[in-house]
Amino acid sequence: MSTPVEQTDVAHLCAAHYRPLHAHVRRKLPQRSDADDVVQETWLRVVKVAASGLLGNGRAYLYRVAHNLIADHYRQRARRREDVLDDAQLLAIADPAPLPEQRLLDAEQLRHLDAVIAALPARSRQVFLLARVEQRELAEIGRLLGITRQTAHGHLLRALVAVQQVPQA
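Above: the chain's sequence. Below: its structure in token form.
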């Protein structure tokens, strides 16, 4: 039923086959954007071949190009999956332990933090440790230490201001 197509007949080819071609590609590529890309690239290639005067059976060429582009799409997708697997394998091999320099900085920061906490007034240190280490509520800390919740809050603020002065690694 198809006849050889001249350059001037590309518009007729498009009018007759755009929707059927798009439906065919869409069945092969469920992602609409992928199907749209393949159809667009198919028409670009048909126009290029028609401009050279080498387009014979336009319908057959159209579907052959679409078929090849669909195959290319799946090959590229498989390659991307392999790349992801390779990255995952590399991540599995990577040592998650911190570098020696980072461990040194962390140890230095901990020593500095320990010194700051030790230098706090006794009551502020107690409130800080109960609140931050033992995760107790201010009202509970107040009851434990025989002080009001507001006083416990003041001691915690004093400790937090001092702790914030510790340099970050």
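The chain is about 80% helix and 0% strand.
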